[in-house]
Amino acid sequence: MSKFFEALERAEQERAVRFQAAPSEPTNARGPAVPETALDPALRSAPELPRGVANGLDEHLVSLLAPTSFEAEQYRALRHLIEQRGKSTALSVVAVSSPGVADGKTTTAINLAGALAQAPDARVLLIDADLRGAAVAARLGWDARVGPGLADAILDASLTLETAAHACPHLNLSVLPAGRRPSATYEVLKSPRVGELLAEARKRYDYVILDTPPLVLVPDCRVIEKWVDGFLIVVTAHRTGRKFLGEALNLAERTKVVGLVFNGDDRHLSRNSYGSYATRLSKRNRK
């Protein structure tokens, strides 16, 4: 964990030097695409979303909008980690969280699910389990009245996972939105019904990705962890504080922390660089 904190400090120092030397580049600038000749043949045929669907998506969802782009390649690296861990351990239900808000956990969850869904034989389910700050449906450009979701399926035992989940056309991906916003979120997520729904999801899907509430700010994520196989914790360069991250790691069950997603690292923006543009994975020291 100390190496990760050192990386955070170095990134902050380098950012300060660059800021004095030249104006900052726009944070939403797109990185260079991987030359087509360098792509694996399977990736060249990765499905692009139909224009009507793509128009409603958040532009940062590169795994869905531009699956052959350089940015999407970073989420495939994350996909590779999950796939390899899945072969050696029981890692199929993965929660994506962060210490606080605005660290990019929802973007990471959607892009990871999209990357996993690119495998032709994969069955992937994305669940919005952040019932207080649901954002998956909005990022996908869906209407707020998209229909029942996770909260509805928890509160109504007659509502099955198959009924509540929405299949995305042209993709091996289904999405279970948050649904209604309950008045007692913690009590709803603590219900044994959550375990039942995730047990059903394990049978129906190869991978289940959950966008979960922040670890530090609310206790919701901590009642979900007993039903998941692993956690990815998203932190943002120049934003997430060391103490805040340390508190998040102390709250999470250590054996279930798969790794840290270092988001917003702008140290490798060269067109000739193979470094990460948007997302870097930093494995936690296991002591």
Task: Record keyword descriptors for this entry.
single chain; 287 residues; alpha/beta; Rossmann fold; 8-stranded mixed sheet; 13 helices; 38% helix; disordered N terminus; disordered C terminus
Task: Describe what you observe in this structure.
By secondary structure, the chain is α/β, with parallel strands linked by helices. It has a single domain, classed as Rossmann fold (3-Layer(aba) Sandwich), CATH 3.40.50.300. It has helices at 2-21, 41-44, 51-54, 62-65, 70-88, 105-116, 136-139, 150-155, 161-164, 185-189, 192-204, 220-224, 242-251; strands spanning 93-97, 124-128, 166-167, 173-176, 207-211, 230-236, 257-263, 279-282. The chain has an eight-stranded mixed β-sheet with strand order 3-4-2-5-1-6-7-8, with helices on both faces. The protein is globular.
